[in-house]
User: What shape does this take?
Amino acid sequence: MTDARPAPSPVQVGLIGLFVTALVTAQVTASKLLQFGLPFELPLAGGSLVLPGAALAYAVTFFASDCYAELYGRKAATVVVNVGFVMNAVLLVLVWSTIAAPALPQAAPGQIDLAAFESVLGSSTAIVAASLSAYLVSQNWDVFVFHWIRDYTDGEYLWLRNIGSTATSQLLDTVIFVSVGFVLLGETTFSTAVTLIAGQYVFKLLVAVVDTPFVYAVVAAVRSGKTADATAYSRPE
Assistant: This one.
């Protein structure tokens, strides 16, 4: 029996793959805090940007979800976002089960430092709760705002919905992540939390602006007929 259902295109699979890859990378790299010096002072952030190592990888997820939402519609993008949430939880279960599994003695040939392994791959309960809470709210908000702007502008101004949806969703993500992980469940002071929020948000906003030409390039390539998606997904609902 022949399966008449159309196979997903390379672009569709690629965007989903990019989204999930960036998402799990963000989870694994979240524990390292980064600091970038600035040649000027910013309100709240000061003379440097302080942000978790996950910031860049997580910003890529918004690029992938915006491309996907534009090409395949709100419902399809929402499914990808929510499945990604479940996959993030699966990642944590697999990582923690590996940490908890019996290991060869520390002195065994080829064995790594077990404490370092747990420190690098394991996340504190507060950070995990903050990450998942922020993800679920911000990614669904991103899809909602993206299509609200799309409907309001009758499909025009892709740059506006890409930057507008990412700017608002990244603000939600940053505030929830820092508030839950570092203040509510941690011991970070309010002033330090404000500095973290400001630094992360400025960085994420810059990424949203920089990735806009790439969103245009992906969408234009699909709709110009250069890929198999052009006909099927030119005007998603």
